[in-house]
Model the fold of this input.
Amino acid sequence: MKIAILTSSPVENKLLFDTAIERGHECRFIDPRKTYQFVSEHEAGFDRLYYGTDGDAPERITAKSLDCVINRIGSNVEYAAAVLRFLTENLGIYCPNNPWGIIYAANKSWTLQRLSHAKIKVPRTLIAESPAHVKWIVDKIGSLPLIIKANGGSKGKRVAIVDTKKSANSMFEFCVNSGLRVLIEEFIESDSSDIRAWVIGDRVAVAMKRTAVDKDDFRANISRGAKGEKVELSKEDEALCVRGAHCIGLRVAGVDLIKDKKTGTSYIIEINANPGIKIIDLTGENVFTHVIEYCENNYKKGNADGITASMIDSIIMQDGNFLKTVSAALNENAQLKEKVNRLELEKQSQKMNFKFPSK
Ligand SMILES: Nc1ncnc2c1ncn2[C@@H]1O[C@H](COP(=O)(O)OP(=O)(O)O)[C@@H](O)[C@H]1O
Ligand SMILES: [Mg+2]
Done:
């Protein structure tokens, strides 16, 4: 295959590159930030992708010059996903992941909404812009502690615990007035551990249990110093991870699973379209071998795994197009609207009572 790795971080993705070469493929990096998408007509065949590295004029990347593109997009997700969309939709190049899946994965609320709609277990969650009814919120979620997290965070950097009434009474107000939109989640008691599972196609290629080492932290991200060890998933957990990834349009994804230690129930907490590679050192399993193998087996079949998958993808595409239209409309006067919204929120928050009702 002629493979392109779509990423702005070639150093981090060197192992993927080397694995592709070792398996006899041609491989190159494409940095989404250096592309030009040229659209001239609506008819197919007029769309061109140019890549500006050295020299005065960028090179053209033709559909024939690539068989497969693998996304390793960590930042600038919206733009990079648009480039991936151009490669897959406009030029017809195979990618194991639907570009809309990358957009979904970058947004925790969208992901949870979609998973819940597909009847996949997620922690009880409230998604709200003005979470003012503190007692009601806590009752609805169940009890304290609860988790608040920002939509687009990663590496545990925008996830916090609210474990006392005092904290609840001040935290939501703080979030609203700092312009943060948060998800409020049930705290799943798991001894500060969770599972990162690499879904590749219709199986989990490798999974790792992560446990926070710091007794005073609940976050099990490896980037926060948690320890990781290889685990075998039960058939049910594996199926849950696979279904979760597929339902947002991803065939290669890192699914975060948390297990309630009392009931043993598993919940998906988030899905990563660009999962970190520390799992390779910690488990000794080169996940990229499985990724390339999956692409080898699927690139000629088009952009999905078969009839069911392409049906799911087409639904995502429809939703995605709808969202695209809505978001374009919303963006039109973004700055003005934001200002109006802020003023409105400020006005409302003066009236809102961000507190447990006093006795
Ligand atoms: N609802 C929850 N209950 C208990 N712990 C959670 C919950 N949500 C997240 N965590 C912990 O916080 C970590 C980071 O949360 P996650 O949603 O995966 O965000 P990030 O994108 O920052 O990794 C998880 O790995 C897990 O250890
Ligand atoms: Mg995570």
In short: The CA atoms of residues 98 and 199 lie 14 Å apart. The mean pLDDT is 88.
